[in-house]
Design a protein that fits this description.
Number of domains: 1
Protein name: Acetyltransferase family protein
Strand content: 25-35%
CATH architecture: 3-Layer(aba) Sandwich
CATH superfamily: Gcn5-related N-acetyltransferase (GNAT)
Oligomer: single chain
Largest sheet: 7 strands, mixed
CATH class: Alpha Beta
Radius of gyration: 16 Å
InterPro entries: Acyl_CoA_acyltransferase, Bact_Acetyltransf, GNAT_dom
Shape: globular
Strand order of the largest sheet: 1-2-3-4-5-7-6
Keywords: Acyltransferase, Transferase
Distance between the termini: 18 Å
Structural class: alpha+beta
Order of helices and strands: EHHHEEEHEHEE
Amino acid sequence: MQTDIQIHRASSLADPALLAGLSELLADCVAGGASVSFMQPLTQARAETFWRSLAGGVAAGERILLTAQDRSGMILGTVQVLLSQPENQPHRAEVVKLLVHRKARKQGLGEQLMIAVEQAAASAGKSMLVLDTASDSAERLYKRLGWQVSGVIPDYALLPQGGLCATTIFYKRISADSRPASI
């Protein structure tokens, strides 16, 4: 597990360096075949437009955006939790866009981000989390962290290079009493 990585919660997306780092990370993941809502090739401009579209939700506290950065400040990973849900689901949140740069994979960074996002969601009063993935390695991570498979939807989305893929839906009950150590 990487120990020189720091997890930060972004309160806004106004910092150009943050936007550039998140955009580069997203482009790297899409170039590597991650099914995260984008098709190849993903330009820097399209990636920045995506991140800018989230700025209002981050600033309003409707979305928690966590980043994992090395000592130099390079963003090697990110994950989000969508707190804003319908009024009959105030206890639930959705985890989205767990991204780890290809050069930082297989070092425990995804696990660090998932633990941090669960803690952040719990501190926001959430007790039920859901997510979906089309990645076998992400599925193994989620299962190892206690997430439960709800089901698999065939032909759910297109892979970034084309071709349909299935997605696996997961859920996890968490304690709303948990508090993050430093998020």
